[in-house]
Specification:
about 30% helix; about 280 residues; 9 helices; 7-stranded mixed sheet; binds magnesium ion; binds FE2/S2 (inorganic) cluster; alpha/beta
């Protein structure tokens, strides 16, 4: 059992939790994730390791409530326990030898982008971020990004914070004003696809962090199969980072929608019962 030592609401649907898991903190690197189970009957879900504190043995996770399991997790409070918390899983993000980097995130993707920015900043790479959100009430981690990046650009769909529009609307301008040797993109699949299309035209190597359905997180179940160029990879062990110019995004979108009906039904059942 893993104790929740802190719970903070970051925005309407986004929560930060610190979980006591000293074994996970010892080896965790930027880009890796955990797979957790809220209770014994619960399903396994992957969440990125947003931050690590080796002195108090805690891992920070930041999650958006989108369905049954994230809803159940959000019902837990400080001092309560979750059943399983396995990690670190996946390959760390490759950040070596990068000097001038642009990190682009959409929505809760900011939580996945933050540890990459932090690690780049620690190795003295110069990092800028473009972070896009639906509107001002969804903006998260603004102060965190200020500490680990050089320039911060924000967009919101309605213009209530930063520039009005999508991250891709300002991406070309930002790329043309700066000389980036690498771009990281993380967020909705369509966003990563659009970012990669633009950076490909500018010949900037691009890494994306993929979010396929994961079950065991060990390469055994095949749930997280993704098509990268001509190869088939398992995102839980080969990723979650991949070359953004090689990913078959349409295949990923199709696979992620496979369980949508059941997930929506489960969530409706849970929330209509008012479970806690
Ligand atoms: P559901 O209603 O079951 O599903 C809602 C949507 O979430 C689905 O349509 C699907 O796209 C996705 N999803 C559902 N089950 C899974 C699963 N087992 N594995 C992967 N995706 C699933 N979200 C965050 O908010 N913060 C994070 O830091 C974060 N990190 C992630 C890191 C990785 C490597 C991956 C693969 C996903 C990450 N996600 C993160 C997404 C998160 O796992 C899903 O939002 C969560 O599993 C939804 O579960 P649910 O039961 O609440 O919703
Ligand atoms: Fe099962 Fe990746 S989650 S193979
Ligand atoms: Mg679910």
């Amino acid at each position: 059992m893993y104790k929740i030592t802190l719970k903070e609401t970051l925005s309407d649907q986004i929560t930060l939790m610190k979980i006591e898991a000293p074994d996970v903190t010892r080896h965790a690197k930027a880009g890796q994730f955990v797979i957790l189970r809220v209770d014994q009957q619960g399903e396994r879900i992957p969440l990125t390791i947003a931050d690590v504190n080796t002195s108090d043995g805690t891992i920070t996770i930041i999650f958006q409530v989108v369905g049954k399991t994230t809803y159940m997790l959000n019902q837990k409070d400080k001092g309560m326990y979750i059943e399983d918390f396995v990690g670190p899983l996946g390959m760390p993000t490759h950040i070596e030898n990068l000097n001038r980097v642009l990190v682009v995130s959409g929505g809760v993707g900011a939580a996945i982008a933050y540890p990459v920015c932090k690690a780049l900043n620690e190795q003295h790479s110069l990092v800028d971020i473009i972070s896009g959100f639906k509107n001002k009430s969804f903006v998260i981690l603004e102060d965190w990004f200020k500490k680990v990046s050089h320039k911060q650009y924000y967009t919101t769909d309605d213009g209530s914070f930063g520039e009005k529009g999508f991250v891709t609307d300002i991406l070309k301008k930002v790329i043309e004003e700066n000389q980036y040797d690498h771009v990281f993109a993380v967020g909705p699949i369509v966003m990563m696809k659009a970012v990669s299309k633009i950076t490909k035209a500018y010949h900037i190597p691009t890494t994306v962090s993929l979010n396929p359905i994961m079950v065991d997180g060990t390469g055994m179940c095949g749930g997280c199969r993704v098509k990268i160029g001509d190869s088939i990879k398992f995102a839980c062990v080969d990723g979650p980072d991949f070359d953004g110019h090689q990913v078959d995004y349409d295949n990923l979108l199709k696979r992620n929608q496979m369980y949508l009906d059941k997930e929506t039904k489960d969530f409706k059942q849970l929330t209509s019962r008012g479970d806690s």
